[in-house]
Design a protein that fits this description.
The structure holds two protein chains of two kinds.
Chain A (H helix, E strand, L loop, with lengths): L3 H9 L11 H22 L1 H9 L21 H6 L13 E7 L7 E6 H17 L7 E4 L7 H13 L2 E3 L6 H11 L3 E4 L1 H14 L10 E4 L6 H11 L2 E8 L4 E7 L6 E3 L4 E6 L6 E2 L5 E7 L10 E7 L1 E2 L11 E2 L4 E2 L4 E3 L2 E3 L1 H9 L8 E8 L2 E9 L9 H19 L4 E5 L6 E2 L2 E2 L2 E3 L4
Parallel strand pairs in A: 3-4, 3-5, 5-6, 6-7, 19-24, 20-21
Antiparallel strand pairs in A: 1-2, 7-8, 8-9, 9-15, 10-11, 10-12, 12-13, 13-16, 14-15, 17-18, 19-20, 22-23
Helix pairs in contact in A: 2-3, 5-6, 7-8, 8-9, 10-11
Chain B lengths: L1 E10 L6 H9 L4 E8 L3 E8 L2 H10 L4 E12 L4 H9 L6 E8 L5 E8 L2 H10 L3 E3 L1 H5 L2
Antiparallel strand pairs in B: 1-3, 1-4, 2-3, 4-6, 4-7, 5-6
The chains are: A alpha/beta, B alpha+beta.
Protein backbone atom coordinates (compact mmCIF):
# COMPACT_ATOMS: atom_id res chain seq x y z
CA UNK A 1 0.00 0.00 0.00
CA UNK A 2 1.42 3.36 -1.06
CA UNK A 3 1.71 5.93 1.66
CA UNK A 4 -0.68 8.84 1.35
CA UNK A 5 2.23 11.31 1.29
CA UNK A 6 3.67 9.59 -1.74
CA UNK A 7 0.27 9.35 -3.38
CA UNK A 8 -0.36 13.02 -3.04
CA UNK A 9 3.06 13.96 -4.34
CA UNK A 10 2.48 11.79 -7.40
CA UNK A 11 -0.79 13.58 -7.97
CA UNK A 12 0.72 17.02 -7.38
CA UNK A 13 3.42 16.33 -9.96
CA UNK A 14 0.83 15.75 -12.66
CA UNK A 15 1.81 18.19 -15.45
CA UNK A 16 -1.75 19.46 -15.68
CA UNK A 17 -1.34 20.87 -12.18
CA UNK A 18 1.22 23.50 -13.15
CA UNK A 19 -1.28 26.33 -13.84
CA UNK A 20 -2.51 25.97 -10.23
CA UNK A 21 0.80 27.45 -9.07
CA UNK A 22 1.18 30.38 -11.51
CA UNK A 23 2.63 33.41 -9.72
CA UNK A 24 -0.20 35.83 -8.87
CA UNK A 25 1.01 38.78 -10.99
CA UNK A 26 1.38 36.54 -14.01
CA UNK A 27 -2.08 35.03 -13.37
CA UNK A 28 -3.70 38.49 -13.23
CA UNK A 29 -1.99 39.44 -16.47
CA UNK A 30 -3.29 36.30 -18.14
CA UNK A 31 -6.79 36.91 -16.76
CA UNK A 32 -6.88 40.46 -18.14
CA UNK A 33 -5.70 39.34 -21.55
CA UNK A 34 -8.34 36.60 -21.64
CA UNK A 35 -11.07 38.86 -20.28
CA UNK A 36 -10.42 41.39 -23.04
CA UNK A 37 -10.56 38.64 -25.64
CA UNK A 38 -13.79 37.11 -24.32
CA UNK A 39 -15.52 40.50 -24.12
CA UNK A 40 -14.48 41.27 -27.68
CA UNK A 41 -15.71 37.90 -28.85
CA UNK A 42 -19.10 38.18 -27.12
CA UNK A 43 -19.48 41.76 -28.35
CA UNK A 44 -18.90 40.68 -31.95
CA UNK A 45 -20.90 37.46 -31.90
CA UNK A 46 -23.70 37.72 -29.33
CA UNK A 47 -26.46 40.17 -30.10
CA UNK A 48 -27.83 40.38 -26.57
CA UNK A 49 -24.42 41.17 -25.12
CA UNK A 50 -23.68 43.75 -27.78
CA UNK A 51 -26.96 45.60 -27.20
CA UNK A 52 -26.39 45.65 -23.43
CA UNK A 53 -22.91 47.10 -23.97
CA UNK A 54 -24.40 49.74 -26.26
CA UNK A 55 -26.99 50.68 -23.63
CA UNK A 56 -24.13 51.40 -21.25
CA UNK A 57 -22.08 53.19 -23.88
CA UNK A 58 -19.39 50.55 -23.50
CA UNK A 59 -17.05 49.05 -26.06
CA UNK A 60 -14.55 46.20 -25.54
CA UNK A 61 -11.61 48.63 -25.45
CA UNK A 62 -13.05 50.16 -22.25
CA UNK A 63 -11.85 47.10 -20.39
CA UNK A 64 -8.32 48.15 -19.47
CA UNK A 65 -7.91 46.49 -16.09
CA UNK A 66 -9.46 43.57 -14.22
CA UNK A 67 -11.35 46.08 -12.04
CA UNK A 68 -13.15 47.31 -15.16
CA UNK A 69 -15.06 44.03 -15.14
CA UNK A 70 -17.57 45.66 -12.77
CA UNK A 71 -18.65 47.97 -15.64
CA UNK A 72 -19.85 44.99 -17.67
CA UNK A 73 -23.50 43.89 -17.71
CA UNK A 74 -24.54 40.77 -15.81
CA UNK A 75 -25.84 37.63 -17.49
CA UNK A 76 -28.77 35.88 -15.77
CA UNK A 77 -30.20 32.39 -16.07
CA UNK A 78 -33.31 33.97 -17.60
CA UNK A 79 -31.14 35.25 -20.47
CA UNK A 80 -30.37 31.64 -21.37
CA UNK A 81 -34.07 30.77 -21.26
CA UNK A 82 -35.17 33.83 -23.22
CA UNK A 83 -32.68 33.15 -26.01
CA UNK A 84 -33.39 29.40 -26.09
CA UNK A 85 -32.01 27.46 -27.85
CA UNK A 86 -29.01 29.06 -29.58
CA UNK A 87 -29.29 32.81 -28.92
CA UNK A 88 -26.12 33.15 -26.84
CA UNK A 89 -23.84 31.07 -29.03
CA UNK A 90 -20.68 32.81 -30.21
CA UNK A 91 -19.60 30.03 -32.56
CA UNK A 92 -21.29 28.71 -35.68
CA UNK A 93 -22.85 25.28 -35.21
CA UNK A 94 -20.18 23.67 -37.39
CA UNK A 95 -17.65 24.48 -34.65
CA UNK A 96 -19.87 23.24 -31.85
CA UNK A 97 -19.03 19.66 -30.91
CA UNK A 98 -21.34 19.21 -27.92
CA UNK A 99 -24.63 20.45 -26.51
CA UNK A 100 -25.77 19.88 -22.95
CA UNK A 101 -29.16 20.70 -21.53
CA UNK A 102 -29.99 21.65 -18.00
CA UNK A 103 -33.56 20.94 -16.97
CA UNK A 104 -35.23 24.07 -15.80
CA UNK A 105 -37.60 23.65 -12.88
CA UNK A 106 -40.08 25.86 -14.70
CA UNK A 107 -40.71 26.27 -18.37
CA UNK A 108 -37.99 25.90 -20.95
CA UNK A 109 -34.68 24.19 -20.34
CA UNK A 110 -31.36 25.89 -21.03
CA UNK A 111 -28.82 24.77 -23.61
CA UNK A 112 -25.05 25.10 -23.34
CA UNK A 113 -22.55 24.59 -26.16
CA UNK A 114 -18.91 23.57 -26.42
CA UNK A 115 -16.34 23.81 -29.19
CA UNK A 116 -13.53 21.27 -29.31
CA UNK A 117 -11.33 23.78 -27.41
CA UNK A 118 -14.06 24.20 -24.76
CA UNK A 119 -14.24 20.44 -24.20
CA UNK A 120 -10.44 20.39 -23.86
CA UNK A 121 -10.51 23.18 -21.27
CA UNK A 122 -13.26 21.37 -19.40
CA UNK A 123 -11.23 18.16 -19.42
CA UNK A 124 -8.13 20.01 -18.23
CA UNK A 125 -9.89 21.61 -15.26
CA UNK A 126 -11.43 18.26 -14.30
CA UNK A 127 -7.95 16.70 -14.39
CA UNK A 128 -6.74 19.47 -12.07
CA UNK A 129 -9.68 18.82 -9.72
CA UNK A 130 -9.04 15.10 -9.52
CA UNK A 131 -5.27 15.49 -9.17
CA UNK A 132 -5.89 18.01 -6.39
CA UNK A 133 -7.95 15.34 -4.62
CA UNK A 134 -4.91 13.05 -4.75
CA UNK A 135 -6.07 10.84 -7.63
CA UNK A 136 -3.65 9.59 -10.27
CA UNK A 137 -3.02 6.92 -12.86
CA UNK A 138 -3.82 3.58 -11.29
CA UNK A 139 -6.94 4.81 -9.56
CA UNK A 140 -10.24 3.20 -10.52
CA UNK A 141 -12.85 5.91 -10.70
CA UNK A 142 -16.56 5.15 -10.67
CA UNK A 143 -18.51 7.95 -12.29
CA UNK A 144 -22.02 7.73 -10.88
CA UNK A 145 -23.20 11.13 -12.04
CA UNK A 146 -25.86 10.91 -14.69
CA UNK A 147 -24.49 10.60 -18.23
CA UNK A 148 -26.39 12.37 -20.93
CA UNK A 149 -27.79 15.85 -21.16
CA UNK A 150 -26.59 16.55 -17.61
CA UNK A 151 -22.95 17.73 -17.56
CA UNK A 152 -21.93 15.75 -14.46
CA UNK A 153 -21.27 12.33 -15.95
CA UNK A 154 -19.37 13.26 -19.11
CA UNK A 155 -17.44 16.04 -17.35
CA UNK A 156 -16.08 13.72 -14.68
CA UNK A 157 -15.57 10.96 -17.23
CA UNK A 158 -13.35 12.97 -19.60
CA UNK A 159 -11.33 14.33 -16.68
CA UNK A 160 -10.72 10.98 -15.01
CA UNK A 161 -9.77 9.37 -18.31
CA UNK A 162 -7.36 12.20 -19.22
CA UNK A 163 -5.78 11.88 -15.78
CA UNK A 164 -4.91 8.32 -16.70
CA UNK A 165 -7.27 6.68 -14.24
CA UNK A 166 -9.50 3.72 -15.09
CA UNK A 167 -13.06 4.94 -15.51
CA UNK A 168 -16.12 2.87 -14.62
CA UNK A 169 -18.97 4.84 -16.19
CA UNK A 170 -21.87 3.50 -14.15
CA UNK A 171 -23.94 6.68 -14.52
CA UNK A 172 -26.71 7.13 -11.93
CA UNK A 173 -29.21 4.58 -10.63
CA UNK A 174 -29.20 0.86 -9.87
CA UNK A 175 -27.53 1.06 -6.48
CA UNK A 176 -27.10 -2.71 -6.16
CA UNK A 177 -25.07 -2.88 -9.34
CA UNK A 178 -23.04 0.20 -8.32
CA UNK A 179 -22.10 -1.52 -5.08
CA UNK A 180 -21.34 -4.82 -6.77
CA UNK A 181 -18.98 -3.18 -9.30
CA UNK A 182 -17.39 -1.02 -6.63
CA UNK A 183 -16.58 -4.16 -4.69
CA UNK A 184 -15.63 -6.45 -7.59
CA UNK A 185 -13.45 -3.89 -9.41
CA UNK A 186 -11.77 -2.53 -6.30
CA UNK A 187 -12.93 1.00 -7.10
CA UNK A 188 -10.75 3.59 -5.32
CA UNK A 189 -12.69 6.80 -5.99
CA UNK A 190 -16.27 7.76 -6.79
CA UNK A 191 -17.80 10.86 -8.36
CA UNK A 192 -21.49 11.44 -7.62
CA UNK A 193 -23.86 13.67 -5.69
CA UNK A 194 -23.44 13.47 -1.90
CA UNK A 195 -27.10 12.44 -1.60
CA UNK A 196 -26.53 9.52 -3.92
CA UNK A 197 -23.46 8.39 -2.01
CA UNK A 198 -25.50 8.42 1.21
CA UNK A 199 -27.98 6.20 -0.57
CA UNK A 200 -25.17 3.83 -1.59
CA UNK A 201 -23.95 3.70 2.02
CA UNK A 202 -27.46 2.75 3.18
CA UNK A 203 -27.91 0.20 0.48
CA UNK A 204 -24.47 -1.36 1.05
CA UNK A 205 -25.40 -1.83 4.71
CA UNK A 206 -28.65 -3.54 3.69
CA UNK A 207 -26.76 -5.83 1.33
CA UNK A 208 -24.25 -6.66 4.04
CA UNK A 209 -21.35 -5.00 2.17
CA UNK A 210 -18.93 -3.38 4.59
CA UNK A 211 -18.16 -0.07 2.88
CA UNK A 212 -15.25 0.58 5.23
CA UNK A 213 -13.46 -2.53 4.06
CA UNK A 214 -13.55 -1.60 0.37
CA UNK A 215 -10.47 0.01 -1.26
CA UNK A 216 -12.57 3.14 -1.91
CA UNK A 217 -10.57 6.06 -0.53
CA UNK A 218 -11.95 9.24 -2.10
CA UNK A 219 -15.33 10.67 -3.03
CA UNK A 220 -15.67 13.75 -5.21
CA UNK A 221 -19.13 15.07 -4.47
CA UNK A 222 -20.97 17.94 -6.08
CA UNK A 223 -23.97 19.18 -8.06
CA UNK A 224 -25.80 20.12 -4.87
CA UNK A 225 -24.89 21.93 -1.66
CA UNK A 226 -23.85 19.76 1.27
CA UNK A 227 -22.62 20.49 4.74
CA UNK A 228 -19.58 19.73 6.87
CA UNK A 229 -21.71 17.59 9.16
CA UNK A 230 -22.73 15.55 6.12
CA UNK A 231 -19.04 15.19 5.29
CA UNK A 232 -18.31 13.88 8.79
CA UNK A 233 -21.18 11.45 8.50
CA UNK A 234 -20.02 10.17 5.09
CA UNK A 235 -16.41 9.85 6.22
CA UNK A 236 -17.33 7.99 9.39
CA UNK A 237 -19.60 5.56 7.54
CA UNK A 238 -17.21 4.78 4.70
CA UNK A 239 -13.67 5.79 5.74
CA UNK A 240 -13.13 7.78 2.55
CA UNK A 241 -11.89 11.33 2.14
CA UNK A 242 -14.80 13.42 0.84
CA UNK A 243 -14.11 16.34 -1.49
CA UNK A 244 -16.46 19.11 -2.53
CA UNK A 245 -16.41 19.96 -6.24
CA UNK A 246 -18.20 22.94 -7.75
CA UNK A 247 -19.49 23.68 -11.18
CA UNK A 248 -22.50 24.65 -13.22
CA UNK A 249 -23.52 23.92 -16.78
CA UNK A 250 -23.81 27.61 -17.68
CA UNK A 251 -20.09 28.05 -16.99
CA UNK A 252 -18.76 24.66 -18.12
CA UNK A 253 -20.14 21.90 -15.89
CA UNK A 254 -18.28 20.30 -12.98
CA UNK A 255 -14.71 21.56 -12.58
CA UNK A 256 -15.13 25.27 -11.96
CA UNK A 257 -13.58 24.72 -8.55
CA UNK A 258 -12.65 21.95 -6.15
CA UNK A 259 -11.22 21.33 -2.72
CA UNK A 260 -7.61 20.22 -2.37
CA UNK A 261 -6.49 17.86 0.40
CA UNK A 262 -6.39 20.72 2.91
CA UNK A 263 -10.19 21.10 2.66
CA UNK A 264 -9.99 24.82 3.32
CA UNK A 265 -12.44 25.99 0.68
CA UNK A 266 -12.64 25.30 -3.05
CA UNK A 267 -9.93 26.52 -5.41
CA UNK A 268 -11.44 28.24 -8.44
CA UNK A 269 -9.60 27.54 -11.67
CA UNK A 270 -9.42 31.25 -12.19
CA UNK A 271 -7.22 31.13 -15.26
CA UNK A 272 -10.49 30.04 -16.95
CA UNK A 273 -13.25 31.29 -14.63
CA UNK A 274 -12.99 34.73 -13.08
CA UNK A 275 -14.80 34.97 -9.72
CA UNK A 276 -16.43 38.03 -8.18
CA UNK A 277 -18.66 38.37 -5.16
CA UNK A 278 -21.53 40.85 -5.39
CA UNK A 279 -24.34 41.98 -3.16
CA UNK A 280 -27.25 39.78 -4.35
CA UNK A 281 -29.76 42.61 -3.98
CA UNK A 282 -27.85 45.50 -5.62
CA UNK A 283 -25.20 43.77 -7.72
CA UNK A 284 -22.46 45.90 -6.13
CA UNK A 285 -19.07 44.13 -6.04
CA UNK A 286 -17.90 43.18 -2.54
CA UNK A 287 -14.30 42.83 -1.36
CA UNK A 288 -12.68 39.41 -0.79
CA UNK A 289 -13.83 37.95 2.50
CA UNK A 290 -17.40 39.34 2.33
CA UNK A 291 -20.29 36.98 1.81
CA UNK A 292 -22.42 37.52 -1.25
CA UNK A 293 -23.43 36.05 -4.57
CA UNK A 294 -20.78 34.39 -6.70
CA UNK A 295 -20.52 35.88 -10.20
CA UNK A 296 -18.39 34.07 -12.77
CA UNK A 297 -16.95 35.11 -16.11
CA UNK A 298 -15.62 32.47 -18.47
CA UNK A 299 -12.21 33.64 -19.65
CA UNK A 300 -11.57 31.11 -22.39
CA UNK A 301 -14.97 29.77 -23.45
CA UNK A 302 -15.49 29.88 -27.22
CA UNK A 303 -18.94 28.53 -28.04
CA UNK A 304 -20.81 30.27 -25.27
CA UNK A 305 -18.91 32.95 -23.39
CA UNK A 306 -20.57 33.95 -20.13
CA UNK A 307 -19.83 37.44 -18.92
CA UNK A 308 -20.56 38.09 -15.24
CA UNK A 309 -22.96 35.19 -14.86
CA UNK A 310 -25.11 35.42 -11.69
CA UNK A 311 -24.78 31.95 -10.15
CA UNK A 312 -27.22 32.65 -7.25
CA UNK A 313 -24.80 30.70 -5.07
CA UNK A 314 -23.96 32.46 -1.82
CA UNK A 315 -20.34 32.24 -0.68
CA UNK A 316 -17.26 34.40 -0.12
CA UNK A 317 -13.75 34.51 -1.51
CA UNK A 318 -11.46 33.32 1.25
CA UNK A 319 -8.63 35.71 1.96
CA UNK A 320 -5.05 34.43 2.09
CA UNK A 321 -3.18 31.59 0.46
CA UNK A 322 -4.00 27.92 0.94
CA UNK A 323 -1.41 25.76 2.68
CA UNK A 324 -1.18 23.61 -0.46
CA UNK A 325 0.67 26.44 -2.21
CA UNK A 326 -1.79 26.92 -5.06
CA UNK A 327 -2.10 30.56 -6.08
CA UNK A 328 -5.72 30.05 -7.10
CA UNK A 329 -8.19 31.87 -4.89
CA UNK A 330 -10.67 29.83 -2.92
CA UNK A 331 -14.37 30.17 -2.21
CA UNK A 332 -16.14 28.93 0.89
CA UNK A 333 -18.25 25.81 0.50
CA UNK A 334 -21.65 26.78 -0.84
CA UNK A 335 -24.37 26.28 1.72
CA UNK A 336 -27.19 28.17 0.16
CA UNK A 337 -28.44 29.99 -2.88
CA UNK A 338 -29.92 33.44 -3.04
CA UNK A 339 -32.93 31.91 -4.79
CA UNK A 340 -33.60 28.98 -2.45
CA UNK A 341 -34.45 31.18 0.49
CA UNK A 342 -37.92 30.41 1.76
CA UNK A 343 -40.01 32.96 3.54
CA UNK A 344 -42.29 31.26 6.04
CA UNK A 345 -44.56 33.52 8.06
CA UNK A 346 -42.08 36.33 7.50
CA UNK A 347 -39.03 34.34 8.61
CA UNK A 348 -36.19 33.64 6.18
CA UNK A 349 -35.29 29.98 6.03
CA UNK A 350 -32.71 28.12 3.95
CA UNK A 351 -33.01 24.38 3.31
CA UNK A 352 -29.40 24.05 4.51
CA UNK A 353 -30.53 25.14 7.99
CA UNK A 354 -33.10 22.37 8.03
CA UNK A 355 -30.42 19.87 7.08
CA UNK A 356 -28.07 21.12 9.78
CA UNK A 357 -30.86 20.82 12.38
CA UNK A 358 -31.65 17.25 11.32
CA UNK A 359 -28.00 16.21 11.37
CA UNK A 360 -27.67 17.33 14.96
CA UNK A 361 -29.78 14.36 15.94
CA UNK A 362 -27.73 11.21 16.19
CA UNK A 363 -28.37 8.63 13.53
CA UNK A 364 -30.46 10.82 11.27
CA UNK A 365 -29.55 10.75 7.61
CA UNK A 366 -30.53 13.81 5.69
CA UNK A 367 -33.12 12.20 3.47
CA UNK A 368 -35.66 14.91 3.96
CA UNK A 369 -38.06 17.10 2.11
CA UNK A 370 -39.67 20.39 2.93
CA UNK A 371 -43.32 20.72 1.98
CA UNK A 372 -44.89 24.17 2.05
CA UNK A 373 -48.63 24.65 2.13
CA UNK A 374 -50.97 27.51 2.92
CA UNK A 375 -53.74 26.84 5.36
CA UNK A 376 -56.30 29.58 6.00
CA UNK A 377 -53.90 32.19 4.70
CA UNK A 378 -51.02 30.98 6.87
CA UNK A 379 -47.86 29.37 5.54
CA UNK A 380 -47.21 25.94 6.97
CA UNK A 381 -43.94 24.10 6.64
CA UNK A 382 -43.64 20.37 7.08
CA UNK A 383 -40.30 18.61 7.20
CA UNK A 384 -40.61 15.01 6.09
CA UNK A 385 -37.81 12.76 7.26
CA UNK A 386 -37.33 9.25 5.95
CA UNK A 387 -37.08 6.58 8.62
CA UNK A 388 -33.86 4.70 7.90
CA UNK A 389 -32.80 1.32 9.31
CA UNK A 390 -30.46 3.17 11.71
CA UNK A 391 -33.36 5.21 13.10
CA UNK A 392 -36.04 2.57 13.14
CA UNK A 393 -37.04 0.80 16.31
CA UNK A 394 -40.14 -1.28 16.83
CA UNK A 395 -41.13 0.68 19.92
CA UNK A 396 -43.59 3.53 19.46
CA UNK A 397 -42.17 5.42 22.42
CA UNK A 398 -38.68 5.45 20.94
CA UNK A 399 -39.96 6.68 17.57
CA UNK A 400 -41.96 9.40 19.28
CA UNK A 401 -38.81 10.35 21.16
CA UNK A 402 -36.93 10.64 17.88
CA UNK A 403 -39.75 12.72 16.43
CA UNK A 404 -39.65 15.05 19.42
CA UNK A 405 -35.87 15.45 19.24
CA UNK A 406 -36.09 16.34 15.54
CA UNK A 407 -38.88 18.77 16.31
CA UNK A 408 -36.86 20.36 19.11
CA UNK A 409 -33.76 20.73 16.96
CA UNK A 410 -35.73 22.33 14.09
CA UNK A 411 -37.55 24.72 16.41
CA UNK A 412 -34.23 25.72 17.90
CA UNK A 413 -32.39 26.28 14.61
CA UNK A 414 -35.23 27.85 12.60
CA UNK A 415 -36.88 29.87 15.31
CA UNK A 416 -40.36 29.00 14.08
CA UNK A 417 -42.63 26.05 14.69
CA UNK A 418 -42.67 23.56 11.83
CA UNK A 419 -44.29 20.15 11.56
CA UNK A 420 -42.12 17.07 11.48
CA UNK A 421 -43.39 13.94 9.77
CA UNK A 422 -41.63 10.60 9.79
CA UNK A 423 -42.14 8.94 6.42
CA UNK A 424 -41.29 5.57 4.91
CA UNK A 425 -37.82 5.04 3.48
CA UNK A 426 -37.20 5.67 -0.22
CA UNK A 427 -40.44 7.58 -0.65
CA UNK A 428 -38.94 11.04 -1.13
CA UNK A 429 -38.57 11.75 -4.81
CA UNK A 430 -35.00 11.79 -6.11
CA UNK A 431 -34.03 12.91 -9.58
CA UNK A 432 -30.62 12.76 -11.34
CA UNK A 433 -29.27 11.70 -7.96
CA UNK A 434 -30.28 15.06 -6.55
CA UNK A 435 -32.90 15.11 -3.86
CA UNK A 436 -35.74 17.49 -4.49
CA UNK A 437 -35.63 19.39 -1.23
CA UNK A 438 -38.55 21.76 -1.42
CA UNK A 439 -42.09 21.19 -2.62
CA UNK A 440 -44.02 24.42 -2.61
CA UNK A 441 -47.79 23.88 -2.70
CA UNK A 442 -48.64 27.43 -1.73
CA UNK A 443 -50.76 29.13 -4.33
CA UNK A 444 -50.43 32.86 -4.15
CA UNK B 1 -37.52 -20.10 23.07
CA UNK B 2 -37.03 -16.79 21.33
CA UNK B 3 -39.21 -16.03 18.34
CA UNK B 4 -38.16 -13.73 15.51
CA UNK B 5 -40.66 -10.97 14.94
CA UNK B 6 -40.36 -8.56 12.02
CA UNK B 7 -41.47 -4.96 12.34
CA UNK B 8 -42.11 -2.44 9.59
CA UNK B 9 -42.47 1.30 9.64
CA UNK B 10 -45.66 2.28 7.82
CA UNK B 11 -47.24 5.65 7.29
CA UNK B 12 -50.79 5.97 8.51
CA UNK B 13 -52.31 6.29 5.05
CA UNK B 14 -54.77 4.18 3.07
CA UNK B 15 -53.12 1.25 1.31
CA UNK B 16 -49.87 1.29 3.21
CA UNK B 17 -50.37 -2.09 4.83
CA UNK B 18 -51.57 -3.70 1.62
CA UNK B 19 -48.18 -3.43 -0.12
CA UNK B 20 -46.17 -5.48 2.39
CA UNK B 21 -49.03 -7.95 2.76
CA UNK B 22 -49.06 -8.50 -1.00
CA UNK B 23 -45.30 -9.00 -1.11
CA UNK B 24 -45.47 -11.66 1.58
CA UNK B 25 -48.36 -13.36 -0.20
CA UNK B 26 -46.38 -13.49 -3.44
CA UNK B 27 -43.52 -15.20 -1.64
CA UNK B 28 -45.90 -17.70 -0.06
CA UNK B 29 -45.11 -16.45 3.42
CA UNK B 30 -47.81 -17.03 6.01
CA UNK B 31 -48.53 -14.37 8.62
CA UNK B 32 -49.07 -16.21 11.90
CA UNK B 33 -49.65 -13.18 14.10
CA UNK B 34 -49.93 -9.49 13.40
CA UNK B 35 -50.24 -6.39 15.48
CA UNK B 36 -50.33 -2.75 14.44
CA UNK B 37 -49.15 -0.18 16.94
CA UNK B 38 -50.21 3.17 15.61
CA UNK B 39 -50.09 6.88 16.16
CA UNK B 40 -52.00 9.50 14.24
CA UNK B 41 -49.16 9.81 11.74
CA UNK B 42 -47.54 6.42 11.42
CA UNK B 43 -47.59 2.90 12.69
CA UNK B 44 -45.36 -0.05 13.40
CA UNK B 45 -46.56 -3.27 11.88
CA UNK B 46 -45.31 -6.22 13.89
CA UNK B 47 -45.61 -9.70 12.42
CA UNK B 48 -44.66 -13.24 13.17
CA UNK B 49 -44.36 -15.09 9.89
CA UNK B 50 -43.60 -18.57 8.63
CA UNK B 51 -40.16 -17.59 7.27
CA UNK B 52 -38.82 -14.45 8.90
CA UNK B 53 -35.53 -14.36 7.02
CA UNK B 54 -37.15 -14.56 3.62
CA UNK B 55 -39.81 -12.06 4.69
CA UNK B 56 -37.25 -9.55 5.94
CA UNK B 57 -35.17 -9.95 2.80
CA UNK B 58 -38.15 -9.59 0.46
CA UNK B 59 -39.40 -6.49 2.21
CA UNK B 60 -35.96 -4.89 2.35
CA UNK B 61 -35.39 -5.53 -1.32
CA UNK B 62 -38.57 -3.59 -1.95
CA UNK B 63 -37.33 -0.63 0.05
CA UNK B 64 -39.06 -1.26 3.37
CA UNK B 65 -37.20 -0.58 6.58
CA UNK B 66 -37.41 -3.80 8.57
CA UNK B 67 -36.41 -4.53 12.12
CA UNK B 68 -36.09 -8.06 13.44
CA UNK B 69 -36.62 -8.42 17.17
CA UNK B 70 -36.75 -11.38 19.49
CA UNK B 71 -39.97 -11.91 21.36
CA UNK B 72 -41.37 -14.66 23.56
CA UNK B 73 -44.60 -16.56 22.95
CA UNK B 74 -46.49 -17.80 25.98
CA UNK B 75 -49.27 -20.35 25.74
CA UNK B 76 -52.10 -19.86 28.21
CA UNK B 77 -55.48 -21.45 28.71
CA UNK B 78 -58.13 -19.13 27.27
CA UNK B 79 -60.02 -18.54 30.52
CA UNK B 80 -60.45 -15.71 33.01
CA UNK B 81 -57.19 -15.23 34.90
CA UNK B 82 -54.96 -16.74 32.20
CA UNK B 83 -53.10 -13.49 31.58
CA UNK B 84 -53.02 -12.56 35.25
CA UNK B 85 -51.19 -15.83 36.07
CA UNK B 86 -48.42 -15.09 33.59
CA UNK B 87 -48.02 -11.50 34.74
CA UNK B 88 -48.09 -12.70 38.33
CA UNK B 89 -45.02 -14.80 37.64
CA UNK B 90 -43.14 -11.66 36.72
CA UNK B 91 -44.21 -9.71 39.82
CA UNK B 92 -41.33 -8.42 41.85
CA UNK B 93 -38.76 -9.56 39.30
CA UNK B 94 -38.05 -6.10 37.93
CA UNK B 95 -38.40 -7.57 34.43
CA UNK B 96 -39.82 -4.91 32.14
CA UNK B 97 -42.33 -5.64 29.39
CA UNK B 98 -41.64 -3.36 26.42
CA UNK B 99 -44.95 -4.31 24.83
CA UNK B 100 -47.26 -7.26 24.40
CA UNK B 101 -50.19 -8.48 22.35
CA UNK B 102 -52.34 -11.58 22.31
CA UNK B 103 -54.30 -13.74 19.93
CA UNK B 104 -56.50 -16.79 20.28
CA UNK B 105 -55.10 -20.00 18.98
CA UNK B 106 -56.95 -21.94 16.33
CA UNK B 107 -56.36 -25.04 18.41
CA UNK B 108 -59.33 -24.08 20.56
CA UNK B 109 -59.20 -23.16 24.18
CA UNK B 110 -55.75 -21.69 24.17
CA UNK B 111 -54.45 -18.16 23.73
CA UNK B 112 -50.98 -17.02 22.78
CA UNK B 113 -49.38 -14.00 24.35
CA UNK B 114 -46.46 -12.33 22.58
CA UNK B 115 -44.09 -10.39 24.81
CA UNK B 116 -41.17 -8.19 24.04
CA UNK B 117 -39.01 -7.95 27.15
CA UNK B 118 -36.13 -5.59 27.71
CA UNK B 119 -34.20 -8.63 28.96
CA UNK B 120 -35.61 -11.75 27.27
CA UNK B 121 -33.12 -14.17 28.88
CA UNK B 122 -34.10 -13.10 32.39
CA UNK B 123 -37.76 -13.41 31.41
CA UNK B 124 -37.28 -16.93 30.03
CA UNK B 125 -35.63 -18.08 33.23
CA UNK B 126 -38.29 -16.52 35.43
CA UNK B 127 -41.26 -17.82 33.41
CA UNK B 128 -39.87 -21.34 33.10
CA UNK B 129 -39.24 -21.49 36.85
CA UNK B 130 -42.88 -20.55 37.38
CA UNK B 131 -43.96 -23.39 35.08
CA UNK B 132 -45.28 -21.09 32.36
CA UNK B 133 -45.49 -22.72 28.94
CA UNK B 134 -43.19 -20.94 26.47
CA UNK B 135 -43.60 -21.86 22.82
CA UNK B 136 -40.67 -22.56 20.55
CA UNK B 137 -40.76 -21.13 17.07
CA UNK B 138 -41.77 -24.44 15.42
CA UNK B 139 -44.65 -24.90 17.84
CA UNK B 140 -45.93 -21.41 17.28
CA UNK B 141 -45.81 -21.75 13.50
CA UNK B 142 -47.46 -25.19 13.50
CA UNK B 143 -51.08 -25.17 12.42
Amino acid sequence: MMSSVLESSIADCHPANAPDYTPVAQLRELQLKRLQAVVARAWQQVELFCSRMDERGLAPQDIRSLEDISKLPFTEKSDLRDTYPFGLFASPMKDVVRLHVSSGTTGKPIVVAYTKEDVDVWTSVMVRCLAGCGLHQGDIVQVAYGYGLFTGGLGAHYGAEALGATVVPTSGGNADRQIMLMKDFGVTAICCTPTYFLHLIDRAAELGVEMKELPLRAGIFGAEPWTDSMRRHIESMSSIEAFDIYGLSEIIGPGVGCECRHHQGLHIFEDHFYPEIVDPATGTPLPDGSEGELVLTTLSKQAMPMVRYRTRDITRILPGRCECGRTLRRIDRIGRRSDDMLIIRGVNIFPSQVEAALLEIEGTLPHYQIVLTREQGLDEMEVQVEVTPQMFTDKIGALQGLHDRLQGSLDHVLGIRVRVALVEANTIERSQGKARRVIDRRTS
Amino acid sequence: MKIHQISLFVENKPGHIAAPARLLAQEGIDIRALYLADTQQYGILRMIVSDWEKAAQTLETHGFVVKVTEVLAVLVIDRPGGLADVLGALDGSGINIEYMYAFSDVRGDQAILIFRFADPDAAIARLQTAGINLLASEELLKK
